[in-house]
Amino acid sequence: MFVIFDLDDTLVDHTTAYRRATAQLRHTIGSPLSFDEFMTQWSEAHRRYFDRFLLGDLTYHEQSRARVRDVVDSSLTDTEADRHFSRYIESYEHAWALFPDVTPCLQGLVRHRLAIVSNGQRDQQVQKLVRTGIRDRYAYFVVPADCGQPKPHAEIFHHVCAVAGESPARSVYVGDAYDLDALAARNAGLIGVWLARGGESSSHQPPVIHSLVELPTLLDTLEAEIDTDVR
Fold first, then answer.
1. Distance CA 166, CA 206 (A)
2. What is the pLDDT of residues 20-74, one digit of tens each?
3. 122-131 and 78-94 helices cross at what angle (nearest 10)?
4. In this predicted model, what pLDDT tens digit does every residue of 77-112 receive, in sequence order?
5. Cross-strand pairs, 142
6. Left (φ > 0), alpha (ψ -120 to 50) or beta: where does 77 sit?
7. What is the rounded distance in angstroms from the CA atom of residue 165 to the CA atom of residue 125?
8. How far apart, in whole angstroms, are the C-alpha atoms of residue 216 and residue 107?
9. Angle value at C-alpha 18, between 106 and 94, nearest 5 degrees
10. What is the 3-state secondary structure (H, E, C) of 92-144?
């Protein structure tokens, strides 16, 4: 089967790296806010401006400068904003790490073709795979810039399937966000698998897994069901 993964908080522990980098930014600028207050402001600015980047309203550099000015100082020059954001990104990159279940999962998927579909910025997302040592396992890497639409739009899922020459009906998408990943993939005609690391799954439509080590066995089951339906 064709297996497509989300990246952040599915393969790479984005949340931990994001929190560490945000804490470092707060320390660097000497913010009087508590960590929770600063995190809230930084996260709100991220959502506001990164969504505009995904829609093509802002360049990557424009959204990064807007985030810094919103939280640090609205009067910062481009050079000053870039310097703050560069230090933040350096801390964020330093903290990148795979979840412990990623390597055993990939060892169990040697006969499957793999891909990544991410709403992130291409260069940074590719570097996550390179630095964590798993770039060679993924034959395809798709971001919104490739098709003009981010997740949860169907276009991005259809695009990766078309590039790989695979049918959506025989393609599996695995991600940690139920609506953005699993449900969106299902709405696009793929098999959407929700990675519910926190154990919350009782009210959601299967298939649901709680660790990536469960994925190879689930794929065997799904493949058998598809082959039975075809016959």
1. 23
2. 999 999 999 999 999 999 999 999 999 999 999 988 899 999 999 999 999 999 9
3. 30
4. 999 999 999 999 999 999 999 999 999 999 999 999
5. 117
6. beta
7. 23
8. 9
9. 70
10. HHHCCCECCCHHHHHHCCCCCEEEEECCCCHHHHHHHHHHCCCHHHCCEEECH
- Both tokens of residue 231? 């016959």
Distance CA 29, CA 164 (A): 46
Question: In the block, which residue shows the tokens 């493949």?
Answer: 223
Residue 47: count of CB within 10 angstroms of its CB: 11
Q: How far is CA 104 from the centre of its chain?
A: 20
**Alpha helices, DSSP H only, in the chain?**
14-29, 35-54, 60-71, 78-94, 102-107, 122-131, 154-164, 184-187, 215-230
Q: Which two tokens stand for residue 77?
A: 């020059």
Record the tokens describing residue 18, joined without a space.
């994001």
**Six token digits for residue 124:** 């940074």
What type of residue sits at position 89?
Answer: I
Q: Could you give the CA distance from residue 200 to residue 205 in angstroms, rounded to a whole number?
A: 12
At 230 the pLDDT is 53
| Residue 128: partners with Cβ closer than 8 Å, 6 or more residues away | 7, 12, 96
